Structures are given as C-alpha cells and as structure tokens.
Amino acid sequence: MNKFLTTVAAMAILTTSCTQKATNEFNYNVDKFADIEVLRYKVPGFEELSLDQKKLIYYLNEAALQGRDILFDQNGKYNLAIRQTLEAVYTNFNGDKNSDQFKAFEKYLKQVWFGNGIHHHYSMDKFVPEFSQEFFTEQVKTVPAEQLPLAEGQSVDELLATLCPVIFDPSVMAKRVNQAQGEDLIITSANNYYEGVTQNEVEEFYFNQKSVADPFPVMFGLNSKVVKENGKIVEKTYKLDGLYGEAIAKIVYWLKKAEEVAENDVQKAHIGKLISYYETGDLKTFDEYSILWAKDTVSTIDFVNGFIESYGDPLGMKGSWESLVNFKNLDASSRTEIISANAQWFEDNSPVDSKFKKETVKGVSAKVITAAILAGDCYPSTPIGINLPNSNWIRAIHGSKSVTIENITSAYDEAAKGNGFDQEFAYSQEEIESMNKYLSLTDNLHTDLHECLGHGSGKLLPGVDPDALKAYGSTLEEARADLFALYYLADNKLIELGILDNPEAYKSEYYKYVMNGLMTQLTRIEPGKNIEESHMRNRKLISEWAYVHGKEDNVIEYVKRDGKTFIKINDYAKLRELFGKLLAEVQRIKSEGDFEAGMKLVEEYAVKVDPEIHKEVLDRYAKLNIAPYKGFVNPVYTAVTDENGNITDITVDYSENYVEQMLRYSKDYSPLTK
Ligand code: ZN
Questions:
Q1: Are 513 and 568 in contact (CB under 8 A)?
Q2: Domain that holds residue 119
C-alpha cells in the first residue's frame, strides 16, 4: 500500500512539470455545468478489505442511498415532484437535443440534482431556469401520465399549476435558508422543516420545552417538521411509522443486514441503537446511539447515517439527512492520532481565558478516512472533514470523533492541478512556491486541527443556553474551530511532534486562508449579494477582522499591480497573534452566550462585500474558466454472488457518469416518490 501511494505521488510531481498532463487512466473530471464541476474519487484500499468488511460497506452503502429522497423533501416541499417531472420529460424527450431550450432544460435538471432540490446548495438561492415555461408545459403534456407525480384525482394541468410558479416565479420560494437580519426567518425560508408557522411561534414552542436545568438535554427539534394543526403547533417526527417512514423502512432493512456482519460488539451495539432510534424517533435514544458511536474508535469501518447537520434550518435545530460510509486510512491516521494524544496540551496552551477552557479534554479521537459512499447532504457536494456528534454535553462528557476524508481532498487536488488559479491571485512566486510545497499538508492539518481539537475545545459557563447565539451560532462556531487551527498551525509544538518539518510551512496556509477570506471566495457570490453561508462568513470574519486590527502595523496589505489587487502579508508572526486574540474573544462569546457581541462581530466583519473588489475578482476568475463549486459521483459497488445467492465479492467500478448515476438513483432508490 505504502509503496503504491508513493509511486502515485511521484508520478503526480512529474506530470505537473510538463505542460501537457500525462494521460492517466483515472479521469477525475466527470461533468461541468453552470457553476459546478463534478469529479470522481478513488477508493484506494477497498480491494484489500476482508469479504465481511466489504459486505458491511455494501450494506451500509445501500442504507445510505435509500435516504436521498428524504433530503430532497427536507429542502423543499415540491422538490420530489419537480425532480420526478423533470426526469420524466428528460427521459421521454424526442425532439432536438441540441436546441437551446433542451440544453437549458438539461442544465437546470443537473442543477436540481446537484442542489438536492431547486435551490443552490451553497448560496441557497433558487435556480433560474433558462428554458421557457411554454417549453416545459408542452413537454410535460407529452409524458405518459403514470410517470408524473400526480396526486389522487389531480390532472396534469393542476400539477403544472402547482409546479410552474415554484420553478419559474422568482418571488416564490426564493431562498432555501434566509439569514437576513430583521426578517421572519421561518416564513421567508423555503425549506420544508416548518409549515404554516412563524419564527416567533417556533421559538416559543421550543423555548417552552428547553429546560436550562437539564444537564443532558436532547437536541430539540432535530428530527421533525413543525406544523400547525387546528391552530395548535405540533411536531411531525421522522420515524418508521411517521414522516418519511417508507424511506426509513428501507434504511432500517439495510442497517439490519449490516448489523449481522458488524466487525465487533461495539459496532453491533451502535448499529442496533440507531435502528431503534429510526423505529421510535426518540431523541433520547439518539443520544444513547451517539454515545455508543462516539466510543467506537476500534472499528475499521465506520459510518454516519441520520438527521445530523442543521445548516439547512435558519434556526439551526433541524437535522438534514446525510450519510457517509468510510474505512480507516491507517497510514495517514498516525498524524491525527498524534494530535489527539496531545489534545490536553493544546487546550491548556491556547490563548483563551482559562475559565472557558476544559479542565480535561476527553476522548478526542481523530482519524484519516477513505470515503466509500457519499449520500444525502454529503452528496454530490461533500465536506472534507467531519466532527460528530453535535450534542454539546455528549461532546463534553463522552468526546467526539473527528475525521479527515483524504481520498476526497486528494481528488480535489488532482483535479485542480494546472488550472492557473494561484498564478492569477497569489501576490508573488514566493507565495506560489510555498503553497505548492506545503499547502496539501497544511490544508489537511488545518482540517485535522479544526475538526479534532477546534470544535471540541472550550466549554460553556454553567446555565448558558447552547443555542444562545441563535442565527449567528454556526458562523461563530466555525470561526472558533478555524481560529484554533490557524493559531496552532504556527506553533513549534507541531515541529516538536514531528508533524511538520519546517517552521515556515504554516505561511502557505495563512496566505491561502486570508487571500480566500478577503478575495477569492467571492467567486462564489453573485454580484450585488452579501455573504450568507456560515463557513464563508466565518472565513470573511477572521480575515477581515485580522486586516482591520492589523492595519496599524500593516500586517495585511492590499497591493495594486497592473490594475489588479493582491493580498500581501507583511507580518506573519503578528497575524498569528491576531488570530489568537480573536480566538479568545470568540470563545468568550460562545462560553458566555453573549448574543449581542456575537451579532456585532458577524454583522460588522463577516457579511458585507466590497463591490469593487468583488467585481474584479469575478472578472479575473471568469477568465480562468474554473467552476467555483465541486462535487462527486460515487463509485458503483456490485455484489458478486454464487449459484446459491451468497455474496462472494463486492466489486467497485468508477465508470458511471453524472447523468447515469442520478437517473439510476432516482429509479432504484426513491422510496418517497411514486
Ligand atoms: Zn467545522
């Protein structure tokens, strides 16, 4: 294994020195449309797993793929009906496939697949169809009626009357998640977590349930939709005999198969607990599951499957469905194990006020993993690191698990080689060389530190509501984890631990971080718009705050050259000090639940965009012709069986393209569509 990896790395270095990329039989680039590029990833090491391990992955993969419809529906009430209608038109189309109308239609469908609904996965804005309503209407009418999502007694015209405004009227369901200050965030958000209720009603409903005195609160509202019935507010719980029951039944079916081939009793126990959570919808059971799962640091194969992250809810409570199946990358994991083993040292030596520090950092575990399948909210756009569970008290008492997904980050790196981005935006050759040399490592290290130490560090003061920062909570939490990582990247401790071999290496990550936070991430924002997404707000917050507070010492400078703006960092040591200062303040805000201060920080530094810089960045970026967003297709796993139907092997194939995969998933894994 080791040798194989080194050979590949050496080849990669050789190929970058040539202007023409050597033809490699593995093609990372799958599809490109709108602002999206779809890639594929390798699953190195799968062949070396035992048959039982392969079976376990296979069953967990099936459980993962069965949840796709849930996320579509959570993202918007009409998403499944729209997807089904679009696919029916697409697969029945008999006209000119080169016509502008059809091409625009195909692009829109690809966007809807990618966004798991009609909104952009990142900006949350509704996609704008570039084909006409007439074209759409005409096509839908030619489709066999049984392929359309018609409700009982509904005519095709009635279906069109429902769907057309949702697709074509820009004012209808304009934003999936609205974070604009001062507006009713529930009414103005198009997600399907709430219906017929106001923000005040929702806040009151949950406020009445949350008892600050309970030291072990469940994650209120995580697995339900809130609706009004006969004037009363009620929760519709996601469970076997509740909302999404048909999909949950399929997930449970495959989880039971997985349970039978579990690697050990620890793993068997948490799979079993997850099944009973899906059966009952009981959040206490979910906490018990999370604890068992967090304690499973022995299994090679691991997975997430459930209602997990709350970025899709403006109030940060509802969990979007996701799944990620993976196995441990043993070689690369030694790096994160060293970091984890020293967690207490990092906590003790951080620039945070000691009253906000954890006396004992428990059970911080971290590993590098190889993703086997991405699903739900991890697909096609996927995170490169994960830290779970999300429950604050479980993290504090039982610890959390943290992973870096290295086959995904390496697919990004490989696919981006030679695209000209750094040459266009970096200040000079010095920064480019430093990034070429160290960024792969420092970027991965940043993710490790962010996930396995950053999120797990610090504590709330007694009685502080974990949701006190409300809509600003996710941005500030990401900032806290990023600052922790940035601060320590420049620490000699990493040299001492043998993780970095050059005390200057951190500069590559500092440079990229600030350049991205102040300038290049603006490629993801449309002209005239502000920054909404919490990870982006976090990067802007940190970079802008450091720029403003370092102004006197000229720590970060905007330099103009040939009419182009560049970021120049004049004093890296001072910059580190600034990161430390901001870390201390963000931790204080979180620990005390200081909503006012948190809001001020975010509104002042994280949201607003300078229109001039924005325009310049967009113009320069457009010339490079790079898609700002990337995502992945999954490999196809096939069970090989003998004449008695027993599985004898699982094979992996990488040849499926984006459209094929999406249509296959809609056909084979759509328990919630007709
Ligand atoms: Zn994070």
A1: no
A2: 68-176+645-668
DSSP 458: -
Token reading at 85: 């209608």
Same domain, 370 and 398: yes
Residue (of 197, 84, 88, 196) closest to 149 by Cα position: 84
149-197 confidence digits (pLDDT tens) = 999 999 999 999 999 999 999 999 999 999 888 999 999 999 999 999 9
Query: pTM for the full model?
Result: 0.78
Give a three-class secondary structure readout of 440-454.
HHHHHHHHHHHHHHH
> Distance (Å, rounded) from C-alpha 425 to C-alpha 421?
6
Burial of 202 (0-12, 13-18, 19+ CB in 10 A): buried
- Find the 434 Cα to ligand 1 centroid distance in Å: 25
How far is ligand 1, taken at its centre, from the CA of residue 548, in Å? 24
Torsion of CA 583, 585, 591, 594, to 10 degrees: -140
169 and 273 fall within a common domain: no
Name residues with Cβ closer than 5 Å to ligand 1, which is an ion: 478, 481
346 and 433 belong to one structural domain:
yes
Q: Give Cβ neighbours of residue 214 (< 8 Å, ≥ 6 apart).
A: none
Residues 334, 256 share a domain? yes
Report CA(451)–ligand 1 centroid distance (Å): 6
The residues with which 387 forms a beta bridge, in sequence order, are: 402
Please give the tally of structural domains in the chain: 2
Least Cα distance to 458 among 598, 592, 600, 595 occurs for: 592
Burial readout 633-652 (b: 16 or more C-beta within 10 A, e: otherwise): bbbebebeeeeeeebeebeb
Q: 428 CA to middle of ligand 1, Å? A: 30
Q: Ligand 1 centre and the CA of 455: distance in Å?
A: 7
The 10s digit of each residue's pLDDT in 535-569 is 999 999 999 999 999 999 999 999 999 999 999 99
Question: What is the distance in A from the centroid of ligand 1 to the CA of 450?
Answer: 6
Contacts of 230 (CB under 8 A, 6+ apart): none
Q: Do 136 and 115 reside in the same domain of the chain?
A: yes
How much distance in Å is there from the Cα of 478 to the middle of ligand 1?
5
Q: State in Å: Cα 444 to ligand 1 middle.
A: 13
For residues 61 and 165, membership in a common domain is answered with: no
Q: Please give the distance, rounded to the nearest whole angstrom, from the Cα atom of residue 311 to the centre of ligand 1.
A: 11
Average pLDDT, the chain: 93
The alpha carbon torsion through 265, 269, 270, 274 (nearest 10 deg) reads 150
Q: How far is the CA of 286 from the centre of ligand 1 (A)?
A: 21
The DSSP code for 471 is G
CA 444 – CA 409 distance, rounded (Å): 8
Question: How many angstroms separate the CA atoms of 661 and 352, rounded?
Answer: 48
